[in-house]
Design a protein that fits this description.
There is one protein chain. The protein has 137 residues and is mainly α. The protein is 76% helix and 0% strand. It has six helices and no strands. The chain is globular, with a radius of gyration of 19 Å.
Length: 137
């Protein structure tokens, strides 16, 4: 692969890790909201949930490292799944990534709108309109 086709580590981290970073950022708030809504007795589940999330991130990191070593010239979800499981699995992996990216944008926008509108009580009724206008720009 030519040098001009490679991303720097800084750029690659910004481009390829945004999904994982946003998931980690928003999951903590969602977990706490559910646990608090269920009652203070459920907060004992917080530590096991954190351990589970940490374990999953560790497994994900190891998986990425293995994929990078197995596909040094680049291998996305489609290529890896197609080569190891079959064409149908590759198509499912590619389609699921597209859905994941769309949902990541939706969650990011709605979380940002919730943060902005929480500062201005009069704008609470306009959340849906504001969220929709941010997604379709």
């Amino acid at each position: 692969m030519a040098h001009h086709e490679r991303l720097s580590k800084k750029t690659a981290m910004a481009v390829f890790s945004s999904d994982a970073i946003s998931s980690v950022a928003y999951s903590n708030e969602a977990i706490l909201l559910v646990l608090v809504a269920a009652g203070t007795a459920t907060t004992v589940y917080l530590v096991p949930i954190v351990i589970g999330i940490t374990a999953l991130l560790g497994i994900l990191t190891l998986s990425y490292r293995q994929t990078i070593h197995a596909y040094p010239s680049g291998g996305g979800a489609y290529i890896v799944a197609k080569d190891n499981i079959g064409t149908q699995a590759g198509l499912v992996a590619g389609a699921s990534l597209l859905v994941d990216y769309i949902l990541t944008v939706a969650v990011s926008v709605s979380s940002g709108v919730a943060a902005i509108t929480s500062a201005f009580q009069r704008s609470l009724r306009a959340r849906l309109t504001f969220s929709s206008s941010r997604c379709w720009r």
